[in-house]
Each structure stands twice: as structure tokens, then as C-alpha cells.
Amino acid sequence: MNFHVPVIQYAEVLPILIVLGAAVLGVLVEAFIPRSLRYVFQVVISLGSILLAFVAVVRLHGTSHVAVEGSVVVDGPTLFLQGTLLLLAIGGVLLIAERGLDTGGSAFTAHAATLPGSEAERTALASGIIQTEVFPLTLFALGGMLLFPAAGDLVTMFVALEVLSLPLYLMSGLARRRRLLSQEAALKYFLLGAFSSAFFLYGSALIYGYAGTVSLSGIREAISSNAGNDLVLLMGVALVTVGLLFKVSAVPFHAWTPDVYQGAPTPVTAFMAACTKVAAFGAILRLFYVGLSGLRWDWRPMLSGVAIVTMVLGVIWALTQTDMKRMLAYSSIAHAGFILTGVVAVNKAGLEGSLFYLAAYGFTTIGAFAIVTLVRDSTGEATHLSQWSGLARRSPLVASTFALFLLAYAGIPLTSGFVAKFAVFAAAYSSGSSALVIVGVLSSAIAAFFYIRVIVLMFFAEPKEDGPTVVVPPIMTTAAITLAASVTLVLGVMPSSVLDLIKSAARFTF
Amino acid sequence: MNTLALSAGLTGAPEAVLFWILAPLIVLAAIGMILVKKAVHSALLLAYIMISLAIFYIAQDAPFLGVVQIVVYTGAVMMLFLFILMLVGVDSADSLVETIRGQRVVALLAGLSLGALLIGALGRSLLGAGIAGGAVGLDQANSGGNVQGLATLLFSRYVWAFEVVSALLITAALGAMVLGHRERPVPRRTQRQLSEDRFREGSELPGAPLPSPGVFSRHNAVDIPALLPDGSPAPTSVSRVIKARGDVLPTAPFELNKESQGEQK
After folding, report:
1. What stretches of A110-176 adopt beta strand conformation (E)?
2. I need a surface site. Which of A135, A355, B156, B217 has the fewest CB within 10 A?
3. By C-alpha distance, which of A172, A174, A214, A176 is closest to A193?
4. ipTM of the complex
5. Dihedral over alpha carbons A119, A123, A126, A128 (to 10 degrees)
6. pLDDT at res. B255
7. Given 3-state DSSP classes, what are the helix, strand and coil percentages for chain B, each rounded to the nearest 5?
8. Mean pLDDT over all residues of chain B?
9. Is B132 contained in some domain?
């Protein structure tokens, strides 16, 4: 038996290596650096490595290559999504690193190992410790996210899925306030996530049974040459799709989303909501556009159905929410449906539209959740909708910025959301799914209603007597909000440069 | 029957016998694992399932996978399960109250129908299409030895996935530390400090050791408080764990004055 020495193109996987390496470094910092210095080290390592990785991604610009024995595909969509993820992660890490908002010092628990409400917890809180393990966990999750849309075979895709999920399960349970809710969220996310991973794995095994390979290009060839038993393939595709749709929280695999978004510390929710969706849709695009494009007549009706149900139920449920974070969670479900309309177009316009939508949605989400961290009362964040009434009287700037993000969600012209929605709906229309477009536009109208309801509440309702205060955002949160708001505006007013970039990038290599 | 077994991927009559003996037992154990009330029984059934699966793997010419299944899953993971069960408490039972009405019935129906769909479709595709001759490409894959073949794949084609799994393991270790490791916010008190505290004025703890329980060894002596010289029970003599469980027996029958009352009855 002759052993083939694997060729690893280190330069092409450099962004992933930098982020994962920095995560390991962060773990070492936890072990060897005294507690008082850890925070500074962790923030510098996290932000520095993300910036370095971003530079590495930019330097790879124009690469189109299948690297590391076929495990990693470095092409336009990969690089665009990795760049987007890294920029979003900067916003996410800034929010996670914020220590000027909560009176306790941070949004994260003093000591996750102590039971909520116990004597040990009170001692830990009083001692002023704040755990900093959340930084390496963020970087591990980010490393998995960078790999997820680049995976060239189902095994790598599964490993990336786990690498991105496991830290997120943990981070959801680290909230400082309402810890039982947070731990419940973490447990729900973990159990359901593990369950959906099992679906993905079983589906991969069935696809392997059909194609005799797990590499996406190999599956593509097997489908085009009609190699084996279609029934096995279809079941495999269905099960793999379940695993991926769970991650983007499409109906009917959305049940975890509101609870986890609400229970997790808000900075983690921001990071998770923005980045997971980008990474998971990247993987969906690659799987369906590269591996299963020959099978499109079979999976398109299924995904169209999921898209319709997701859009309609997402907006209807969002309409009935009274909690800001839950409302944003249901709106993220609806947005998954909107992006799916771009995916089912299966043409270049669909790919471009989905990529643009992901970037636009990600930044808006980071910004919206960043604002949620600012509105506080004595018990922490004030997330009940009624508490937000008359917010513009207290802080016109914060209310206007939030209004900008909501308008972008609603898809009002001059915001990124409009261009994004236009792009995916146009792609869906050009591929002949006009029913999908009609449902999409109608759901957008309903969605606009509840977004604008919040704006009306903030600007035209009387403020409550003992309402929450709006904290003046400290530097890191300000930076994150500024990043999000400016991208939302720039993508809305002058989207052409980014659209051109996407146009040149939107070509899968296999 | 034999052809059925063959087409399901088995290669010979002894294996068919093995399969038809072990498979029903595994299915029974799997159902039992969900249905039994005690977590330890559930874990033992899971161990049984894992070992049986390992036997299947070995019978199917995948010795490495079989051994790994025993060493890693049964040996390490299952034992950790049991350790944790012991730590949490073998007695602790989960609340089985349904918070959503009818959820269990709906979930059972949905799960059964999904299972039926999968079994039906798989059975149709494997049996109906008539894939004869069992495993395809097994000899080729095992040509240089089973372990060697796996190693070649793992360290060449899938080396990236293999390496990235390390990130997963580090995350798991870090997560276990975050959720499980308690640091002391204040340094541990030394023996000397504790001793000084005891003798300090106003201390609730006695300077001498606590009185031992159960002077009358008529029952499980630890659950009966000792009697003080005046005949009254000494509350500190019973372990607080036993007190918290409510297992402390009344001392009334043993106390001098009460005893005489008892005789009068």
C-alpha cells in the first residue's frame, strides 16, 4: 500500500488557521496569565487575529482552487463569505468585550460553574471575577464558520458544523442575568443541535451509499451519470437538508430559535444570529449549487415549500411577540425564508442575491442586537416591547439608529435590506418561481408592519413613568453600532461596488 | 431468508445467524433503554447496545471500528456516563410532567411515522432494486489491511477534517472546565484557622468533636440523635444530610421521662 502524502496549501487555508490558532492561544492565556490581565490579552488576541485573517482573505482575492486534498474549496463565494464573517465577527467580539454597560461589569456570568441563586454565585459576583473563556470559544466558533461554507466534502462540512455549534451551545449558557433562562436556552440548543447533527450525518451516509464518495464534486458526477439508486440519494438529501435548515432556523426546524435568542447573552445572540446564518447559508449554497445541482428538479419544490412556510409563519409569529429579542428571533426566521427564495433560484442571480442578502442581513442584525443591549433598567436589559415606548424622547440618536436597522429589516429603499430583497426576489422571478415572489412580497409587507409598529412605539408613544434608561453606549458598543449602521446605509445607498464584487466572486469551483 | 440477509450486506451463513440473534436483542435493548425508569439501567442497556454493535462491526470485516467502539464508547464514554450518574445521584429522577398537552403522543406518532418512512424507503431501495452480493468494494478497501486502509485515508485525503476535529476536542475540554470547574474566590481555611474559629467566643461550633449519633443501637443507629445527660436529644449528633432527607427517628421512646409515660399506656 503506497501512502499518498497530503498536500496542504497553507496559504489558502490561512484565514482558518489564524483564527483557530488564536483560539488555542486564548486557551493558553486562560491557563497561564493572571486573571487581571486576561481580559486585555483576550481582546487583543481576538480582534488582532480576526483582522489578520481578514487581511489573509483579501490577499487570497481571486483564488479559485480546491485545496487540502479536496477538503477545502477556496473560491469566490467562500472568500466573500469568509470576509463577511470576519467583519461581522469584529462587531460580535466588540459587543462581547463590552464591559461598560452592565453594572455587574459584563454580560457574562461571573462563574458559570456556580448554581444560579446559590451562595457560591453570590460570593463569585461579589468578588468581581468575570470569566473570559468566552473569547476563545468565540474564535473556535468563528473558525468553524469560516470552514463551513468552504467545505468540499460532507465529512469536512460535518466537522465544521460541529466546530461552529459546540462553542455556541456553551456561550448561550453564560448569561450574567436570568441565568436559568440562559442555561435552559443552552440545553435546548445543545439537545436539538445534536439531534439535527445526527440527521445530517445519517443523510451523508446515505448519500455516500449512493455516490460512493462524500466529496461534493464526486456527488455531482455520480448524479449526472445517474450512478445508483435514486431513493437512497433522495433520502440522504432530505436528511442532510434537515441538518442544514436547522442551523439557518427555517420552519419547521426553527423551534429552538426564539428561546435561544432570548436566553443567550445579547452579545452572543448578535454574533450567533448574524454569523451562523451567513455560514450555514454558505454551506447550503455550496451543497445545492455544486453537489446537488443535477438534482434540482427534486429539491427545488421541497426548498420552495420550506421557504414559503418559513416566510409566512415567521412574520405571523413575529407579529404576536411582546419581547424585543423574541421578535427579532422570529424576524430572523422570516429572513431565512427570504434568503431561501434566492437559493431556490439556482442561477447566478440567485447566488449573487443570496450572498448580498447575507452580508446585508448580518450587519443589520449585529446593529439591532447591539441596540438591545443599551436599553436597560435595574434588572438588566429591558426587552419587553412596552418598555420601549417613547424611547426617542429619552435618546433620539439610539432610537433613530434602531429605526434604521428596522427599516433595513423591512426592506425600505435607501437601506441595505431593500437592495437585498430586490436581488433575491428578482432572481426567484427570473427562474420562474413567481408564486414564491408573491408570497415573499406579501410577507415583507406584513413584516414591515411589525417593524414600523416598533418605530411608531418608540417615536410617537408616551414614555413610561418608570421606564428603562438608555445607556450612553461605551466605546466598543459604539464602534460595533457604527460599523453596522454604516454598512447598512452604504449597502443601501451605493450598493454597486459590493454588487460588482459579488458578481465577480459568485462562481463556485469544484 | 438467506438471500434477504445477503442483500442487506451480510456475506455468509454464520453472519446471518449472528445477525438474526443479535439484531432483535439490540432492538429490544434500545426500546428498553428509553422505557426503563432508572438512569443506571438505561446506561447499562446502552452499553449492551454498543458492545453488540461492535460485534457487528467486527463480523462485517471492520475490526478497527469494532475495537474502537468497545474501547472508546463502551470503555470510556459509557463509564463517564456512569460516573456522572453516580455523582449526580442514582436516585435523582426527572420530572415527567408534560408541560405541553398531548406532546408525547404527537411526538411518538411523528417519530414512528418518520421511522416507518425511513425503513420503508431503505428497505424498498435495498431489497426491491436487488442489490445482490452484499458489500461492494470491501475487499478493495481492506486490501492493505483494515487499520492501514483507514490510516491511509485519515492521514492523506481526510487529514484536514482529522486535524480540525482537534478544535472540537479543545472546545469540549474548555467547555467542561467552564461549566464544571469551581475556583475558590477566597483561599481555603487552614486547619489552624478552623480550630481557632471553634474556640473563639460566640462560635456555634463546639471546640470538641460533634457528639456521635445513635447511642441506642436499636435501629440504623446513625438516624437517632444521641441523648444528652439531661435526657434531651442532641440535634448536632445527626448528619445534616440525614436531617435534610427527613429520615431522623424520634427519640421519644428512649428518653427517660417519656419512657415511663409509654409504660402507663
Report:
1. none
2. B217
3. A172
4. 0.93
5. -130
6. 63
7. 65, 0, 35
8. 79
9. no
Q: Write the residue in B118, B161, B167 that is nearest to A235 by C-beta.
A: B118
B128 part of a folded domain: no
Q: Of A303, A312, A294, A316, whose CA–CA distance to A244 is shortest?
A: A303
The answer on B82 and B7 residing in a single domain is yes
CB contact under 8 A, B171 and A1: no
Same domain (yes/no): B82, B150: no
- Residue B68, min C-alpha distance to chain A (Å): 19
* B167 contacts in chain A (CB < 8 Å): 20, 23, 140, 143-144, 163
Find the CB nearest A170 among B157, B175, B181: B175
Looking at beta carbons, which residues of chain B come within 8 Å of A122?
none
**Is B118 inside any structural domain?**
no
Q: Per the confidence metrics, is the pTM higher than 0.80?
A: yes
Taking contacts as CB-CB distances below 8 angstroms, the residues of chain A near B171 are 137, 140, 163, 166-167, 170
Instruction: List the single residue in A131, A143, A229 with the smallest CB-CB distance to B167.
Output: A143
Q: Which residues pair with A471 in a beta bridge?
A: none
Helix, strand, or coil (residue A153): strand
Contact yes or no for A150/A82 (Cβ under 8 A)? yes
Would you call B250 helix, strand, or coil by DSSP? coil
Residue B217 has pLDDT above 80, yes or no: no
B106 domain residue, yes or no? no
- Minimal-distance CA residue of chain A relative to B125: A231
Q: Chain A residues with CB inside 8 Å of B185's CB? A: 111, 123-124, 126-127, 129
Confidence of residue A405 (pLDDT cuts 50, 70, 90): very high
Based on the fold, state whether residues B149 and B216 are members of the same structural domain: no
Q: Taking 70 as the threshold, does the pLDDT of residue B10 lie above it? A: no
| CB pair distance less than 8 Å for A3 and B155 | yes
As for how many domains chain B has, the answer is 3
**Torsion sign over Cα B86, B91, B97, B102:** positive
C-beta atoms of B164 and A140 within 8 A: no
Structural domain range at position B226: 211-264
Residues of B in contact with A222 (CB under 8 A): none
Is B18 buried (19+), middle (13-18) or exposed (0-12) by CB count in 10 A?
Answer: middle
Is B160 in Cβ contact with A68 (below 8 Å)?
Answer: yes
**Whether residues B83 and B22 fall in one domain:** yes
Query: Closest Cα to residue A479, out of A132, A96, A108?
Result: A96
- Tell me the average pLDDT across A458-475: 87
Do B6 and B89 lie in one domain? The reply is yes
Which residues in chain A are contacts of B158 at CB distance < 8 A?
69, 71, 155-156
